[in-house]
Structure formats: C-alpha cells, structure tokens
Amino acid sequence: MSESNAQPTSAKTQKWGEKEKAEWLAEQKIQRSYADDVITKIEKLKPSLEVTQYATLTYAQKQYPLFSVKTRNWDDAKPTILITGGVHGYETSGVHGALRFLEAKIFDYTEHFNFIVAPCISPWGYETINRWNPNAIDPNRSFYQDTPAQESANIMQHVASLQTPILAHIDLHETTDTDNTTFRPALAARDGVTHTNWNIPDGFYCVGDTENPTPAFQKAIIDSVRKVTHIAPADNDGKIIGETLAQEGVINYAIKKLSLCASLTNAKYVTTTEVYPDSPKVNDEDCVIAQVAAITGGLDYLIKNK
Predict the structure, then answer these.
(1) With 0-12 CB in 10 A as exposed, 13-18 as middle and 19+ as buried, what is 204?
(2) CA–CA separation, 256 vs 243, rounded Å?
(3) Alpha-carbon distance 248 to 56, whole Å?
(4) Domain boundaries along the sequence of the chain
(5) What pTM was computed for the model?
(6) With 50 as the cut, is the pLDDT of residue 8 above it?
(7) Which fold has domain 18-304?
(8) CB atoms within 10 A of CB 258
(9) What is the mean pLDDT of residues 160-168?
(10) Which of the chain's ends, N or C, has fewer CB atoms near its CB within 10 Å?
C-alpha cells in the first residue's frame, strides 16, 4: 500500500499564492531515504555500467545528486533506449523497477541496444512520497523549454547533451489510491478549481502517445506484463482514468501538449507504464517485477521488429 502526506490544510476555492504553497511545503515530511534506497544501489552498478552524476538538486539546504546509468562500449550502430523512473517520486516501483532492470536484465539486451537509464528523477518527491517538488510543481507536467521544474530541466539537458537519437523511451509510473485521496485534491486546491476523482483501475495499464500510438508496441508490453500480474480492466464507461481504451490495458495521451516526461525525446516508440500498488492482488515485489516485464516486453518487440 502507498503511504502519503495528509491533504493540505490550506485548501481553498482560489488559487494558491506563495503563502499557501509555503503552508503546504511545511506539512511535507521526509519518510524514506534516497541515499539508502537508491544511491547505494546505483553505486553497486559502477563496476559494470557507466554511472554519471548529471546534476544536483538543492532543496532546503539538502543536496540530491542525480544519476544516469549508461551501457559501456557505446556503439553508435545500435539504437538507444531511454528508461526513466521516479519523475513522480512517490511512485515507488518506477524507481525500483528501473534499478532492478539495471541489476538483473540489462545485459540480456546490450547486444541489441545502448541504454540510458535515469532511475529517480525526483529524489525529494521520493523521500517525501510526493507527486510535486517543493515548489508545488508537478515535474511530469513540466517538460517544456524554460521549465521552472529543476527535475525536468536537468534530465532534459542531460539527455540532449548526449546527442544520440532515441529509438524508444519507457517511462515508469504508478497509479495509486492517493491520486484521489491526496494528490488530486491538492491539485484542485492549488489551482482553485474542481477536479472530479476518477476510478482507480485495479491492475497494470500503459499510456501511449495520441499522435504516435504504436499499438503493436503497447500490446507487446501488456502481453509481457500479464505473465506476472493482472491487466487493468476498463470501467463501466469503457475508460481508464477518464480516457477511452485504445486496446486492452492501453490509453493514449497527447504527451507533448501535456508536457509529460514521455515527450522528452522524439523517440519512435514511447510508453508510460502504470502499476497499481494498492491492489489486494499484489505486493511491492510484484510491482517491481511488473515494471521490469514492461521494459523487457517492449525491448523484445523491438528486437523482433527491427
């Protein structure tokens, strides 16, 4: 089950100003350690993979080093895969799914691909189990030029600096019960608007790009994940989180218009995975395994369809 911080006490019917944002920030508490949970695992990868600190976040006099992991013996003749996790820091299996892939599966695929993996884009959000950064900004709605979200700006600059075309970008996420109980109410309060809660789907689903949906790629991911956990059904209106199903377990978003992390590159193949950690049918390990299965399902499809 996901933990969360309480709903902001400053919720009002008008948009937040700096005072309300400060009140919200004061309520956020460190609940786990990025250094212990993430950095220690990244350090152990150094003997076999190239680890780069691409930036440092500084919040409230605390520094968070940001890391990417690349395959060694880079080969420009091979296509490059980008994997990102933790752009929403509270979505735990996204972070640990990226790490597990690095620990257990990446060398099954280095014959075919170069890899760039950023396991935890938002470490403050990871530690506070939060969707936003300390400025009450959602990094996953902030992938655009001159973004105010440091998390988004840093990974955008890093990937651009590598000057390599990306074939596929797999962005690892979760949909949790706290989306309705904490984060959507906070969003409504911050913006001074009404947000209707959606039905939280029980199971895995993924989000493709409305402008480039790649249905066969998405289906391969769903078919891979169904071997390890259940796929989310549509609700009574044939939708998942308010969007009409494109196929079983798949919806599409206008990722560039929404400035999502999945719009970070011009990759031909893009997906956002969504695990449901609050299901009574799964535990934390199941969720991590599902993320890895999503990655490998997508990679297997790309190998078969060069």
Answers:
(1) buried
(2) 17
(3) 40
(4) 18-304
(5) 0.95
(6) no
(7) Aminopeptidase (3.40.630)
(8) 14
(9) 97
(10) C
